[in-house]
Specification:
Number of domains: 2
Radius of gyration: 22 Å
Largest sheet: none
Structural class: mainly alpha
Order of helices and strands: HHHHHHHHHHHHHHHHHHHHHH
Helix content: 40-55%
Bound molecules: heme C
Number of strands: 0
Distance between the termini: 27 Å
Strand content: under 5%
Low-confidence stretches: 9-24
């Protein structure tokens, strides 16, 4: 995360604007279409132009942006580094670049029979890992009378839709039923993973421009909408993982579902403080509930009582997991509430709520409810985005840099210093 915060210091993000219909689709890795390979998309007359073009509806330099600036391009190469070799050796899984568990996130690891002639696993997280196998849309998507919905029917994944986009990114940046960066993998040296849909979309960086052509066919709601749907989707996916993976034999449940910093900090640091949020006793291991806590701020602004439900259900889940109680019931209750919040989000207008959202998060921080590192990093990414949305990020850049500096070293994170820096908001 340190690297990310260094980059976020002084960065400004991209702006989107309003909403469209939602389609539901299988993730590219598991859908039926053949993946024909990045080389097929990369030609100079298709997506391999060096400069963005104005005359066509897409920039046509997507390949160049991806290959020169996007870390997904090197995701497979990462598996060849000494760091990855070391992880794989410690895990006893053979070569990292041949291990399914690594390739599932570091490449477009579709089944062998779904790999076309020009497909190369070495291309890492390539175009079709996000946009879906091009077998059927490859020819139709360049027809003069083709349109976006025809492409979707021909296998294009709806990356423009926030929920589907979130599910796609989170499949690798959080994990899903099929793949996860477990604590075994973390213990062998894998970096901790965190994600926020809007911020990471801006950092990728984007290889598209939301212009009139784009708006005519694709979802183009605000950054706040994207962020909020990213949070609720991540919370749902986290719950599904808890449901799936908590009870998996052995003495301990899947440890990566818990807040890393609950266990990993120095014993001489007396960090524990009572929290309204989880009501856990000292010495308890907390689930990583960062997305839920951020969602609480969103629900507070919704003002329909869902914050009350979320608060009590989250507390019940924490206690049930801690006491080996019946957490299936809490998961069911929370899932229903998240569904409600998600549906409500579709009709929410956040355009005048940026300030209220910021205030809710700062209030929560000062009250001691948003002070776990994993929550703090979500809160500051959100506040950064909201200031940008209001067009006042510049005015707050010094303050933001101060907050980021308290978050740069997660191993020596001081909640007090972080709270202090948050208190100085607007000063
Ligand atoms: C198939 C798995 C996969 C999918 C899908 C995926 N990513 Fe990634 N992403 C990765 C991997 C693996 C890395 C690390 C690459 C490396 O450095 O080796 C990464 C890195 C990144 C980084 C760089 C992070 C850093 O610390 O510099 C950003 C930003 C990012 N992804 C954003 C996204 C967004 C936004 C989406 C969804 C639109 C997405 N990713 C979808 C696997 C994936
Ligand atoms: C659930 C998906 C997932 C799995 C499984 C996974 N990774 Fe990763 N890995 C990621 C993501 C996402 C990142 C980027 C994190 C970030 O920077 O935000 C990453 C980052 C890394 C990095 C650091 C890259 C850098 O230079 O910053 C290494 C090394 C790595 N992974 C190796 C492995 C190895 C080896 C395996 C198999 C044992 C593996 N990964 C399995 C998703 C995954
Ligand atoms: C990590 C995921 C990811 C990867 C990898 C990726 N894209 Fe995208 N791409 C997106 C997202 C997200 C959008 C924006 C939403 C949309 O337009 O559907 C997008 C948009 C696009 C667009 C639409 C531009 C417009 O104006 O409508 C094109 C064309 C495109 N990508 C081509 C490519 C090509 C070619 C590659 C490979 C060289 C690639 N993408 C790799 C996620 C990805
Ligand atoms: C329930 C407590 C607990 C949680 C939560 C936890 N860990 Fe661990 N972690 C451990 C223990 C115990 C070890 C083994 C320490 C040892 O072997 O000395 C360990 C080992 C590690 C190591 C290897 C350290 C070494 O000395 O080689 C890393 C890296 C690591 N964890 C990362 C993480 C990350 C990232 C997370 C969050 C996704 C996390 N841990 C969550 C308890 C935890």
């Amino acid at each position: 995360m340190r690297k990310l915060f260094v980059r976020l210091i002084g960065y400004g993000s991209v702006l989107f604007a309003s909403a469209m219909a939602v389609a539901s689709t299988e993730l590219p890795q598991y859908a039926q279409d053949e993946h024909i390979g990045v080389a097929t998309c990369a030609s100079g007359v298709c997506h391999g132009s060096v400069r963005g073009r104005d005359a066509t509806s897409v920039l046509q330099n997507e390949y160049v942006v991806w290959s020169r600036m996007d870390r997904h391009r090197i995701a497979y190469q990462t598996l060849l580094t000494p760091e990855s070799k070391n992880i794989a050796t410690k895990l006893g899984i053979g070569k990292a670049h041949e291990a399914k568990i690594c390739l599932d996130c570091h490449a477009d690891n579709v089944a062998i029979e779904k790999r076309g002639e020009k497909f190369q696993i070495e291309d890492g997280v390539g175009c079709e890992a996000c946009h879906g196998g091009a077998q059927r849309y490859i020819s139709s998507h360049v027809d003069v009378d083709s349109n976006h919905s025809a492409n979707l029917s021909a296998g294009l994944y709806p990356t423009d839709q926030p929920k589907e986009r979130a599910e796609l990114c989170l499949s690798c940046h959080l994990g899903n039923g099929e793949k996860m960066a477990t604590h075994d993998i973390m213990g062998a040296g894998h970096p901790r993973i965190s994600f926020e849909l809007d911020t990471f979309g801006a950092l990728q960086p984007p290889h598209y421009v939301v212009d009139d052509d784009y708006k005519a066919e694709k979802w183009h709601g605000s950054q706040i909408d994207l962020w909020a749907i990213g949070q609720v989707t991540a919370a749902k996916q986290t719950l599904a993982l808890i449901d799936d993976r908590l009870e998996q034999g052995g003495l301990f449940p899947e440890i990566a579902l818990f807040d890393c910093h609950a266990c990993h900090h120095s014993m001489s640091e007396k960090r524990w403080v009572a929290s309204e949020r989880s009501a856990l006793p000292p010495g308890a291991v907390r689930l990583n509930d960062a997305n839920f806590v951020i969602l609480l701020a969103i629900a507070e602004v919704m003002a329909d009582g869902s914050d009350v439900a979320l608060t009590s259900e989250l507390k019940t889940l924490h206690l049930a997991v801690n006491n080996n109680g019946n957490y299936s019931a809490s998961i069911a209750a929370l899932t229903a509430t998240l569904e409600k919040v998600h549906n409500k989000l579709a009709s929410m207008d956040f355009s005048n709520s940026a300030e209220e959202l910021i205030e809710a998060m700062i209030r929560g921080t000062i009250a001691g409810n948003l002070t776990d590192y994993v929550v703090a990093e979500q809160a500051i990414m959100a506040i950064d985005m909201l200031l940008e949305y209001r067009g006042v990020r510049e005015d707050y850049s010094q303050w933001l840099d101060q907050v980021y500096s308290t978050l740069q070293d997660e191993d020596n994170f001081s909640p007090e210093a972080y709270i202090d820096s948050m208190r100085r908001f607007g000063a």
